[in-house]
Amino acid sequence: MKSNIGRFALLAIAVGLPYQALSQEVTLYGRLDVNITKFRDSALELTQASTSRWGLLGRSDLAAGWRTEFQLESGFRSDTGALSGGLFARESWLGLSHETFGLFRLGRSLTPNQRVSVNYDPNNTDSIGTFGPSGLMLSQPALSRFSNGVFYETPKIGGFSVFAAYQLDEANDKTDDSATSVRLRFVTGEFDASLAHAELSAGNRVTSIGANYRLPNVRPMVQWHSGRRNGERRSHWLVGAVIAAPVGEVRVARLAENDRSPQSVDRRLASLGYDYPLSKRSLIYATIVRDRVSAAAARHGMEFGLRHNF
Q1: What CATH number should be reported for the domain holding residue 284?
Q2: Chain segment 141-177, per-residue pLDDT in tens
Q3: Position 161 in a domain
Q4: Rg of the chain taking only CA atoms, in angstroms
Q5: How far is CA 266 from CA 15, 133, 235, 258, in A?
């Protein structure tokens, strides 16, 4: 459960600490995810469908409707306790926001194209039932998050909003090149659609389209990505749905990779999953998949796990 540090202001007064030092709103949140995964041709694994994580969200009011905001998020493996990347490799940014002018941030964060891959995937780019955010982005890990990034998100105007991000190519940082990603989103009623485009180094680029529609008992969705990676044309598509069950939800998805390179490594993935809620914060999940790459024999796999959000 999220907890607001500002609620402890009275305690600060009681012990004689300056109230202002604890007056800003800070929220602690996180997720623990662990499962057992087994493919027919491999050994049993203890792993996770989604990255376990913990983080801090903060905001502090300023004058004239402005406020400062920040986020720090750290990923780790729940099966070993090891960090996933750096300490705050998932999110690390500080920004200014205003209800009229939007949100401006500096640091490391998810890209506009990556949000398209997450918003229109029944598995949220988690689990063995998806290509994952990097996979959907034509296997371009650099498109998942920008470091040394400048991010700007407009308020929603008539259902439309824009999210733009630019990654600086710093002289003293040779790990990241300059990159740009922009997303146009339209939301009205139960309909949600996005168009995004990213330009990376060496002529690599990706255009992404996604949409979903929330019906009473089912939410169908689709996404498509096309572009160039290492000089070759590639495209990915996904069709899926989240279906309400008497208890919990069913997740279905069909994904494809079309590789126009000389190697022509095409891929087809079909998945069926189920989430059973134990409470508002905890659930048991299971996923089965059929995954085939080019002419190789199809791989059949399953995962069964427990997830808890706080």
Answers
A1: 2.40.160.10
A2: 889 999 999 999 999 999 999 999 999 998 777 667 8
A3: yes
A4: 21
A5: 64, 18, 10, 5
**In terms of DSSP bridges, do strands 91-98 and 102-110 run parallel, antiparallel, or are they unpaired?**
antiparallel
Q: How far apart are the first and last CA of the chain?
A: 4
At 224, list the tokens.
Answer: 């498509």
218 bridge partner residues: 243
Q: How many domains does the chain have?
A: 1
Cβ 205 vs Cβ 197: under 8 Å: yes
Q: Determine, yes or no, domain membership for 23.
A: no
Q: Where are the alpha helices (DSSP H) in the chain?
A: 9-14, 112-119, 132-136
Decide if 49 contacts 35 (C-beta within 8 A): yes
Predicted confidence (pLDDT) per residue in 16-72, tens digit: 333 343 458 999 999 999 999 999 989 999 999 999 999 999 999 999 999 999 999
Please check whether residue 7 lies inside any domain of the structure. no
> Exposure of 27 by Cβ count < 10 A (0-12 exposed, 13-18 middle, 19+ buried)?
middle
| Residue 70 resides in a domain | yes
Q: How far is Cα 212 from Cα 223, in angstroms, rounded to an integer?
A: 9
Whole-angstrom distance, CA of residue 72 vs CA of residue 294: 40
Bridge-partner residues for 58, per DSSP?
Answer: 26, 70
- Let me know: does 175 contact 201? Beta carbons within 8 Å: no
Range of the domain at 145: 31-309
Enter the pTM of the model: 0.87
Rounded to whole angstroms, the Cα distance separating 306 from 286 reads 9
301, containing H or E segment: strand 299-309
